[in-house]
Amino acid sequence: MKNRTGKNNKFLFVAVGIVVIALVCVVVKINFGSRKSTDNKKSEQKAQLHDSITGYTEQYFEDGILYVDDNYMRFCSNAANEDGLICARPNCKHQKSRTEECGAYVDNINTTGFAKRGDKIYYIGAGDTGEDYSLYSEDLEGQNRKKLVKLPKANYIFEALYHDNTVYIAYMYKNYTDDASKTTLGIYKYDTGSEQGNVYFETKAYGFSFDGMVMGKDTLYMSYVCSNVSNSDVLKHKSDKYYERKHSRKFVKGLDVKSGKEKVSLDGYGNNNTLLYVSGKLFYNTGKDNLYYDENTRETQKISGDNLIPVKSTDKQYAYFMSYDKKTKKRTYLRYDTSNDEMNIIAQGDYILCAVYEDKVYLSNAEGEKTEYSYIALYDFVKGDITGVKKYKSMWG
Ligand SMILES: [Zn+2]
User: Fold this and answer.
1) Lesser CB count within 10 Å: N end or C end of the chain?
2) 8-state DSSP, 233
3) Where is the chain membrane-spanning (predicted)?
4) What is the rounded distance in angstroms from the CA atom of residue 50 to the CA atom of residue 61?
5) How remote is the CA of residue 238 from the centroid of ligand 1, in Å?
């Protein structure tokens, strides 16, 4: 799986072989806009866009899942029940072309940091040097691509959080020609309205691994692991195999949304690359314990010792979790009610619970080489009925 097993697999790039379905030769236009009329009314009432919900190589929305696979942007459309390319160009060869003439294909696209916002798709593209990245926008059919801004020097882009008109991009930079130099972890902030950006946060240590970001009330939360010993220090202490571990620390930090100044520091991490924020509570882990930090009381509360995996969601009352039993190979889905501090089991199943977005639950297969996405109505899911899971029909390979 792409991102469900641990922290360091943000560095794993999964090469997925393409199977070209030669039989399919109609041009498929994936219509992002088609929703039921009730859904349209609902979204008109919404003043703001939801924050992006990222599962690393995929992003979840009310109307489907946008993801990048082998430089092609794909969209799993709930309306069409299809997993297809976003390209709408007539007579396009799509996956045979591997050129940007295909609206879905992007050279050097970064597999993290993209999102669909309103009538645009934003994504990050790599430059030629391996240290330069830029933020781009395009329309929903992959056309009218525009470079918005060059990002600070980076070797790696961890992820981006899209909140209202603002994009927070977490990056890492190390000068590899200077062995003694520390690594920089930074967050670049870009406003898509004013088209202005700046380095919002920066810290230095010997190496980072990043767990994720989530927006709270006037606070941007993030989590990372860093080490305060250099590679040469580790080599000098070869006999102590725990030396590096002893000198690494896990942090959950809360930054003032305006200034970027640190105002919360917790000892813990975002389990499975997920920090979850629901109704004034920030859910995170310390060891196997699931806890939350209450923004109002500024106190922490343990809710489980079972190392539950938090599930990203837009929900304003419930925090969703998943656990995995290695013996039975079954997953258990749970939800925690923030209004009365009760945890309840919803159901058991084989699916990986990816995200809860409004009235939909997104799932993926746990077995098999290729990730296959599916969804189910939240209404059925919370009753424990997962018989109605709809798998997207794969189009164009
Ligand atoms: Zn195409």
Assistant:
1) N
2) H
3) 12-32
4) 9
5) 52
Structure confidence by residue, pLDDT tens digits, 187-229: 999 999 999 999 999 999 988 999 999 999 999 999 999 988 8
CATH, range 8-394: 2.130.10.150
Sheet holding 342-349, edge to edge: 342-349, 330-337, 318-325, 309-313, 352-357, 360-364, 373-377, 390-391
Quickly list DSSP for 289-337.
EEEEEETTT--EEEEESS-PEEEEE--SSEEEEEEEETTTTEEEEEEEE
Residue 78: other Cβ atoms inside 10 A? 21
pLDDT digits (tens, 9 = 90+) for 40-94: 555 444 457 899 998 878 999 999 999 999 999 999 999 999 999 999 888 888 8
Distance 123 CA to ligand 1 centre (A): 18
The pTM (predicted TM-score) of the whole model is 0.87
> Residue 393 Cα, ligand 1 centroid: separation in angstroms?
18
> How large is the greatest C-alpha to C-alpha distance in the chain, in angstroms?
66
- E runs forming strands in 174-274: 183-191, 196-205, 208-215, 219-227, 248-256, 262-267
- d(CA 365, ligand 1 centre) in Å: 27
